[in-house]
Amino acid sequence: VQLVESGGGLVQAGGSLRLSCAASGSIFSIYSMGWYRQAPGKQRELVATITSGGSTNYAESVKGRFIISGDNAKKLVYLQMTSLKPEDTGVYSCNADIWSTGTGRRISWGHGTQVTVSS
Question: Could you give the CA distance from residue 10 to residue 109 in angstroms, rounded to a whole number?
Fold first, then answer.
């Protein structure tokens, strides 16, 4: 199972970015997918998650600014980020709770994509 993120980059404060994550491999079903981030010197934290049923959950710090969406059939998840702040800077990683035909239920992670917000 592989998760590949894209869409990171450098943006000015107040700007927007859209992250994408594509899952591939021996995936029988997806229970949920999500985005996490890790800033330099800090622990990884949850940004947003979405279940296969479409329920979403957001960190308080991003509510009203970020929107997570997904396409289970295509094994894709997106994170639309607006009104970005310098404190949103970090490596954003995609995560998926899946049932793999090879190994059963598991959590898979992507390698991450860098988001840098300049002030």
Answer: 23
How confident is the model over 15-37, as pLDDT tens digits? 999 999 999 998 999 999 999 99
Count how many residues are written for the chain. Answer: 119
E strands, the chain, are 2-6, 9-12, 17-24, 27-38, 45-51, 56-58, 66-71, 76-81, 90-100, 104-109, 113-118
What would the pLDDT profile of 56-70 be if each residue is shown by its tens digit? 999 999 999 999 999
CB-CB contact of 66 with 94 (8 Å): no
Give me the residues paired with residue 114 across strands.
91
Instruction: Give the C-alpha separation, 47 to 63, whole Å.
Output: 9
